[in-house]
Amino acid sequence: AAVELDVPLFIHPTQPTPAPRTHRYDLNVTVQYIYDTTVTVGSLVLSGVLDRFPTLQLILAHGGGFFPYQVGRFDRMYRNLKPPILPAQPPSAYLRRFFYDTILHHPAALRYLRDLVGNDRLLLGTDYPFPPADLAPLQLLEATGWSADEIAQITGDNAQRLFKC
User: Is the pLDDT reported for residue 19 higher than 90?
Assistant: First the structure.
């Protein structure tokens, strides 16, 4: 339906099942949500969904989980996959098929993501009302040292283009 309607889908975990070791120190909130995002992205890429629906637009929460940061590992494992189901290209070829929110909580991580996928693939995010929401997301963007025009692209222009406003 999203393809037919030409609307993006937002991928965000709801209530991940806590792994036994994540009960302490709020690690379920810190790690498990990111893990679930990563598993979802990996499943979409490796199952060939993005090949079957080339115009499907997806927005990933939490800066895409671990996918952008471990894309080399995904590519390495891709070489070991066997048919019948394989994506047409290595996972790294799909990085720009996604839009990514900016909920990374650290300027170096956000700069890495932008260097990898481009400024035009980033959307301002807060994760509100869920912990650890960023209630001042512009501070992170400003801490990256990016220009006002680059920040404006992330805080509005990209979303306007994506949602055809």
Answer: no
Over pLDDT 90: what percentage of the chain?
76
CATH number of the domain encompassing residue 153: 3.20.20.140
> From the centroid of its chain, how far is CA 57?
12
Q: Is the dihedral of CA 122, 35, 49, 116 positive or negative?
A: positive
Query: How many domains is the chain partitioned into structurally?
Result: 1
Evaluate if pTM is beyond 0.70: yes
pLDDT tens digits along 116-129: 999 999 999 998 88
Chain-centroid distance of CA 62 in Å reads 6
Is the C-alpha dihedral spanning 17, 23, 29, 31 positive or negative?
negative
**Cα–Cα dist 49/6, whole Å:** 16
Q: What is the pLDDT of residues 37-74, one digit of tens each?
A: 999 999 999 999 999 999 999 999 999 999 999 999 99
- Domain range for 83 is 2-162
Single-letter amino acid, residue 61:
A
Distance CA 87, CA 78 (A): 9
Tokens for 57, please give them: 């637009």
**Per-residue confidence (pLDDT) for residue 132, from 0 to 100:** 81
**Beta strand extents in 1-147 (DSSP E only):** 9-11, 58-60, 98-101, 122-123
- Measuring CA to CA, which residue among 56, 45, 51 is closest to residue 6? 56
